[in-house]
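Quiz preparation item.
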């Protein structure tokens, strides 16, 4: 092997002091430098106030997005200690903001019984990744303040006044040389703080956006805790019982759970540890599911919902239509992976399981009408599951007998390496024909669909297998659906929805996205789903190369550029594309399918709760929420077909 000639001595070994490692590798500490990482800074400071609330010392947290994207977070907790720290020989407050892993959240004798956040690195990481940070503390009868720039202390902690109040106020401006954007999304922050307020009973959180001409403000405080959370999640759904089942128990591992069943066919369970959203579940979810299955099967046997010859209900039968929030507080949580999305503490399984066993059994015995409504749905789900199994086997047998197991209309690609392959799900045979001719056959597959497909929000899995619109999609992707979906078996790294830029196209996109969200959710979570962006307009003139525009703004910008070249607007012809079928294969390739020139929108799921709410509103049974949504958003619609 050829040696790389370079000096390798003491001077080549970098020593990153203080907070330099954070600035050098920010992704290691906050996940990314995108808008998600930017929001993470706010969450970390708010989490410090929440920890004070969990300890019983904080009742209010106020968050303000100031003009210029300056963030202000103020709580009325105890205030960060201001005395000199015995090890660092600087004030404790400065230590917290300048030394990694310095905080009151480590070990059994720490300042907190339980805590979330980054376990003490939160404050210092925010400081390191900010242009400037100003911290004001009210404690011990005084007002104290310190100031930092890019993690370095500019003004040490000094007393600037007297006060009988307590609390901490942090103002910071994120570093524009580190983050891709400094524009905070108000709705994203609002959703997160509503969630925190649900999880922290009695804590009042306000968020105010002072940017722009129309300031926004929201205030959250829920004395009902998780009961209020479940009621919020189900506000647009038909409930099987009016009041959520509520379970709460203090102890070494405090547990709080709320459960309510709806008429929907999907399960909707959210789990939290110390207010951290464990989107991958873990031992607390495992204990909850085990208890749920046992309790309902025992009740079904004891009250003749199941006959002696009947098989037990499976977990998926019992969880159909459930909305549940499971929140546990663990002194020393062990998370799998750096993202802290799966709880690993084995002792939590037994704690949750035994608690739910006892409380839920008692509830069902004391509320036979609620038990009957839920069990009837569970038994119906079991029958549908069996019907789905038979339909699935029928599809498999039929596929095995055919010369090819792939859908007849699928024009597959030659490559078999999933990572480099992509499938375009195309609206209509006409556009499908153009896409087949215009594609790169090595890595691009085309699956034409025609007509409106099944709305899976209103159908069980047994109606999906064999459906002439959805079955080709299931077989082409090749990874199954529902509980059987296996992301490692997908045949294409990109699943691209390519529909017309009109109302029908939007409807087809929504139907497909609803299907992926409900039955192939890992496909979205893994970042495999995309939306193609065909052009809306084509500008043409003799002797001029055609110009394609994808938005109204793009059209106006194109005319401005042409005007600068001396080309008048009225000498240019404009074609408004109503459908993909209007483009020939070359145009479709050039504008929508060529990886070097196309625009794809990746479908992501930042917030499963918000996504579930939107799909329920748009595709569910309840008409009133949908009407309200349309009334509120109609003013934003562009290019509506007339």
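Solution:
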């Amino acid at each position: 092997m050829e040696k790389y000639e370079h000096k390798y001595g003491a001077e080549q070994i970098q020593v990153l002091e203080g907070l330099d490692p954070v600035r050098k590798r920010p992704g290691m500490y906050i996940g990314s430098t995108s808008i998600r990482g930017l929001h993470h800074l706010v969450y970390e400071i708010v989490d410090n106030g929440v920890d004070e609330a969990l300890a019983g010392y904080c009742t209010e947290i106020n968050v303000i997005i100031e003009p210029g994207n300056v963030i202000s977070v103020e709580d009325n907790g105890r205030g960060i200690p201001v005395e000199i720290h015995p090890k660092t020989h600087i004030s404790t407050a400065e230590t917290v903001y300048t030394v990694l892993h310095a905080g009151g959240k480590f070990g059994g004798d720490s300042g907190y019984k339980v805590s979330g956040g980054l376990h003490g690195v939160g404050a210092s990481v925010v400081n390191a990744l900010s242009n400037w940070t100003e911290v004001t503390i009210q404690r011990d009868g005084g007002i104290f303040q310190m100031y930092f720039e890019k993690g370095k202390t500019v003004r040490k902690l000094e007393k600037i006044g007297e006060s009988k109040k307590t609390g901490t106020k942090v103002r910071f401006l994120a570093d524009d040389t580190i983050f891709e954007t400094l524009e905070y999304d108000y709705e994203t922050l609002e959703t997160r703080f509503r969630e925190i307020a649900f999880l922290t009973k009695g804590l009042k959180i306000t968020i105010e956006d002072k940017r722009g001409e129309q300031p926004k403000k929201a205030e959250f405080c829920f004395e009902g805790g998780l009961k209020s959370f479940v009621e919020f999640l189900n506000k647009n759904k038909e409930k099987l019982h009016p009041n959520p089942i509520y379970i709460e128990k203090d102890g070494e591992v405090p547990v709080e759970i709320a459960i309510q069943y709806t008429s929907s066919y999907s399960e909707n369970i959210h789990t939290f540890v110390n207010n951290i959203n464990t989107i991958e579940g873990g031992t607390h979810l495992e204990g909850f599911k085990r208890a749920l299955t046992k309790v309902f099967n025992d009740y079904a046997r004891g009250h003749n919902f199941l006959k002696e010859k009947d098989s037990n209900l499976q977990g998926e039968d019992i969880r159909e239509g459930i909305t549940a929030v499971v929140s546990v507080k663990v002194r020393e949580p062990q998370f799998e992976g750096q993202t802290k999305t799966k709880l690993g503490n084995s002792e939590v399984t037994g704690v949750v399981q035994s608690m739910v066993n006892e409380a839920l059994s008692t509830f069902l015995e004391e509320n036979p009408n609620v038990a009957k409504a839920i069990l009837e749905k569970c038994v119906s789900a079991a029958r549908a599951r069996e019907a789905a199994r038979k339909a699935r086997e029928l599809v498999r047998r039929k596929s095995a007998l055919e010369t090819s197991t792939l859908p007849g209309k699928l024009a597959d690609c030659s490559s078999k390496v999933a990572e480099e392959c992509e499938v375009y799900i195309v609206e209509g045979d006409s556009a499908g024909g153009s896409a087949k001719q215009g594609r790169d056959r090595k890595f691009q597959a085309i699956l034409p669909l025609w007509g409106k497909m099944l709305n899976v929000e209103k159908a069980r899995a047994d109606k999906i297998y064999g459906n002439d619109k959805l079955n080709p999609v299931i077989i082409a992707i090749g990874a199954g659906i529902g509980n059987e979906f296996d992301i490692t078996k997908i045949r294409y790294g990109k699943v691209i929805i390519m529909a017309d830029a009109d109302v029908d196209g939007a409807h087809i996109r929504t139907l497909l996205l609803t299907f992926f969200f409900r039955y192939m959710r890992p496909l979205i979570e893994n970042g495999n789903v995309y939306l193609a962006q065909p052009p809306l307009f084509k500008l043409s003139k003799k002797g001029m190369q055609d110009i394609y525009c994808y938005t109204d703004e793009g059209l106006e910008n194109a005319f401005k550029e042409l005007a600068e070249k001396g080309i008048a607007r009225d000498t240019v012809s404009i074609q408004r594309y109503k459908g993909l079928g209007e483009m020939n294969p070359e145009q479709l390739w050039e504008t929508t399918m060529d990886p070097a020139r196309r625009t794809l929108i990746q479908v992501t799921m930042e917030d499963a709760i918000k996504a579930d709410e939107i799909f329920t509103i748009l595709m569910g049974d309840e008409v009133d929420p949908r009407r309200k949504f349309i009334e509120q958003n109609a003013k934003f619609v562009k290019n509506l077909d007339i």
